[in-house]
Write the structure tokens for this entry.
Amino acid sequence: MSQRLSLAVQSGDFAVPEEGRIAVFHPREGHDLSALPASRVQLIQPLKPDNAYWAAQGFDCAATIADTAEFAAAVVFIPRAKPLARQLVAQASAATSGPVLIDGAKTDGIDSLLKELKKRSTPSAAISKAHGKAFWIPGGLDLSDWILAPQQIEGGFVTLPGVFSADGIDTASRLLAEALPAKLGRVVADLGAGWGYLAAQALSRDNVETLHLVEADQSALTCAQRNVSDARAQFHWADARDWGTAQSVDTVVMNPPFHTGRAAEPSLGQAFITNAARLLKPAGQLWLVANRHLPYETALTELFAAVDEVAGDNRFKILHASRPRRRR
């Protein structure tokens, strides 16, 4: 990924304080943090795969920033979601006495964010490289209007900025919920549970005794814990591609992600399918929804004895697979 942070430090435009902790918000695997003193860095990363990656590199990692946190400097790698990007900048500024460097790609809205901040402060000159920009602002700015409270949407569900389908119930998930049978089995897993919509629908079935909500985004899982108060629910901050449980499950439901940036990555959904087959009992079943163009049928037929498209429309398809094949 971009080395704009290193360029800013090496040029002297972004002066790293000699003392004090440095916060780094939402770094992804591949970001270059070599210009920072690792022993004084705390990473704030709610995505479990990236959090685990940086922890393995020896960094102090947290899923969220503590209310009492204080830093001498901060770095914010902005996400695509504009409300979340603004909130991260506001949190970094509020917790930091020194400079706050903001880095992002043009496709993620770095130019519009810089334009907005020019109305609130005097940002440094921007470093442009690799289709993105990095610049810094002084810490301690009052950007409290950029910190958004949880919002309530249709059905009384609560969401947070930046989580998937934050503004309403996802159309594909709604289609899948409508297609689910009356009986799902005693133990159910929702892989990529998000803020809990599918799990809430699954728990309307009386025969379900345990439902595992598996979600990689801690922010979304926090919402799910508010939206699904049923005692049968168990919450797991984990990567759905390799999460496991000692007890095999009867049914897996999922609306798997299929991109990490703007480009489609069907391998993500295929990894969810592979893990579902591993988790299920010999007579278990998988219910999933996917964009119609995604080529999941090949993986499904390799891993399950029976595969059918049971519902859908011109945009989405509901796939049902049963009896996972046991690989030698």
Remarks:
- The CA atoms of residues 38 and 59 lie 7 Å apart.
- The chain has two domains: 4-146, 151-324.
